[in-house]
Automatic annotation (TrEMBL):
Name of the featured protein: glutamine--fructose-6-phosphate transaminase (isomerizing)
Enzyme Commission (EC) number: 2.6.1.16
Top-level enzyme category: transferase
GO molecular function, one term: glutamine-fructose-6-phosphate transaminase (isomerizing) activity
Reactions that this protein is recorded to catalyse: D-fructose 6-phosphate + L-glutamine = D-glucosamine 6-phosphate + L-glutamate
Organism from which the protein derives: Abeliophyllum distichum
Pathway: Nucleotide-sugar biosynthesis; UDP-N-acetyl-alpha-D-glucosamine biosynthesis; alpha-D-glucosamine 6-phosphate from D-fructose 6-phosphate: step 1/1
Tagged with keyword Transferase: yes
Domain of life: Eukaryota
GO process annotations (BP): amino sugar biosynthetic process
Residue ranges of domain SIS in the record: 47-178, 192-335
Length: 345
């Protein structure tokens, strides 16, 4: 039932504030008699000690689920102090990559049916790793939230990171209202889609917490709008992609406030110097400081706790992909050649 919406994709984008609230309900605790801020992940409780002793944590998934894990990796590494490596399920299987008994494998899948991910689960189990699954509700944003809660649970109660953990918990509680705010960019993203309707390609630059946002935004544009799009790690810009920059190719740069902000400012300046056609996503109030020395279109988004900013930043890109698809006359709810879940290898 699409309710008041024209398409299912549009409905899912706009329902994210509620789906996040549902994802956190009963799992994230703030207040109560002892005013504690904590996370309760029932299924994981008995394994936390073993996970904390792991030599590494391996995130395994495909497509959007892989991107969600990539977005959550920094906060998991920060709070747990355990190295986290990333595996695309099919690639792990192709390489028969090393997995050890001392590893914890976290399998990420929205459907739970993806053949490559299930085969990778079997492979990790055969190799003796402790395997846990991230059961999320439907969306990318919920998956990130689940994994942020996982990071809080694994991070435990170290005094040294207590302040940060509490800030992340507060940040999680604030997300639904910030999501509502960012969804107000709908018309602005439709206007942008009108400008980009006839383009062949769109590059998306991100780094740090928002490298995953670049990959996931580009995946959405490719998948539904049937437009070539590439998510690029901004730190790699000078190692190849810079050659593509000219006055015509649209480039979307994610430059919201975090520890990488000044590096992104310098990326923007270098793109300006090559007359790049820029669309910059920045934190509210930052338009003047991201667009120095050139012209660009600016999308301002609300600020969240840095590690949760990807949950906010993906929304304008989802809206852009949606409007591009509709304007280009494609079927937004049934992307060409794609199955709902990929149950074959
Ligand atoms: O159900 P899963 O999360 O295991 O699916 C993995 C990918 O096939 C999936 O995320 C795919 O990339 C998305 N449908 C893209 O929107």
């Amino acid at each position: 039932n699409k309710g008041k919406y024209e398409h299912y994709m549009q409905k899912e984008i706009h329902e994210q504030p509620e789906s996040l609230t549902t994802t956190m309900r009963g799992r994230l605790i703030r207040g109560g008699s002892c005013k504690a801020k904590t996370v309760l992940l029932g299924g994981l409780k008995d394994h936390l000690k073993t996970i904390r002793r792991s030599r590494r944590i391996v995130f395994i998934g495909c497509g959007t689920s892989y991107n969600a894990a990539l977005a959550a990796r920094p906060i998991l590494e920060e709070l747990s102090g355990i190295p986290v490596t990333m595996e695309i399920a099919s690639d792990l299987l192709d390489r028969q990559g090393p997995i050890y008994r001392e590893d914890t494998a976290v399998l990420v899948s929205q459907s739970g049916e993806t053949a490559d991910t299930l085969n990778a689960l079997e492979y990790a189990l055969e190799n003796g790793a402790l395997c846990v699954g991230v059961a999320s509700t439907k969306a990318y944003t919920s998956q990130i939230v689940v994994m942020a809660m996982l990071a809080l649970a694994i991070g435990g109660d170290l005094i040294s990171s207590q302040e940060r953990r509490e800030a992340v918990i507060d940040g999680l509680f604030d997300l639904p209202s910030k999501l509502k705010e960012v969804l107000k960019l709908d018309q602005e993203m439709k206007d942008l889609a009108k400008l980009l309707i006839a383009e062949q390609s769109l590059l998306v630059f991100g780094r740090g917490y928002n490298y995953a946002t670049a990959l996931e935004g580009a995946l959405k544009v490719k998948e539904v709008a049937l437009m070539h799009s590439e998510g690029i790690l901004a730190g790699e810009m000078k190692h190849g992609p810079l050659a593509l920059v000219d006055e015509t190719l649209p480039i979307f740069v994610i430059a919201t406030r975090d520890a990488c902000f000044s590096k992104q400012q310098s990326v923007i300046q270098q793109l300006h110097a090559r007359k790049g056609r820029l669309i910059v996503m920045c934190t509210k109030g930052d338009a003047a400081s991201v667009c120095v020395g050139g012209s660009c279109r600016v999308i301002e988004v609300p600020q969240a706790e840095d590690c949760l900013q990807p949950v906010i930043n993906i929304v304008p890109l989802q809206l852009l992909a949606y409007h591009l698809t509709v304007l280009r006359g494609h079927n937004v709810d049934q992307p060409r050649n794609l199955a709902k879940s990929v149950t074959t290898q």
